[in-house]
């Protein structure tokens, strides 16, 4: 689950348990780690391959050729791994524009839906693998469940940081777990190994630059349907920490979650130095900033004009690493 927008679209799915799920090979997995990790080292192109993901075993017998991605950051991840010719379509495409480095290839990926996708449209794309941003998509109502898709021969891999069991505790380290898992499942371990090296170098440089900096007190929020949501815990707060900040809304989000409705009064009382807000496009960015200025004008962040708008896709998948770097530059420009 990424944002309040998608929570509103699939609220019922958020309550689904994962412990009894079955994998693509029809077997339940006993490990409750909630993330994704290869169960055994695999040579390039070694199949069958399997990983543990969200407490399930995900297994492929050959390299997937018709991949459907849910969320822009997952589409970009597939492009980064060099499998653009194997991407059959993307879903939730309107949640963020692509990063410039991927814009040309991204434009060539068929959009199945800008938001939610119907069962008919998804299955018409004839996917043989789905890379998803959360289990909430597969509630058995609008879309088949993950177990039902497995029975149809369509394994589903969910971003490790957004498996329900770890949503409130995930970190940027889950990016490497995704890379390991996808390297095995897609048959591109060399590409994922290089990506992991880039991740380590980028985050290492950020941490060195910020080692002596005082953390900035920041509130990460999103405005949806004129409602204020605090984004805290899990990957969101880890990105803030990595970027040289402390999320003042950590105590406002219940354990095990990474977003919650918060009151204007609670944010005002926390009085953040900076407000970081998510947006999906330029119009959403402008509307969100107006709302924040109108309702949170008493905060130090608004008084000092310290409002940082960031694309929603900057907080998931491989793109989360670039998101951490961009936020670090915004919070501590003198360090860069």
TrEMBL record:
The protein's name is: ABC transporter substrate-binding protein
Which family does the entry's similarity section mention?
A: Belongs to the bacterial solute-binding protein 8 family.
Q: Name one Pfam family in it.
A: Peripla_BP_2
Every Fe/B12 periplasmic-binding domain range: 66-336
Keywords, A to Z?
Signal
Q: Where is the signal peptide?
A: 1-24
Name the InterPro entries for this protein. ABC_Transporter_SBP, ABC_transptr_periplasmic_BD
Q: PANTHER family, from UniProt?
A: IRON(III) DICITRATE-BINDING PROTEIN (PTHR30535:SF7), VITAMIN B12-BINDING PROTEIN (PTHR30535)
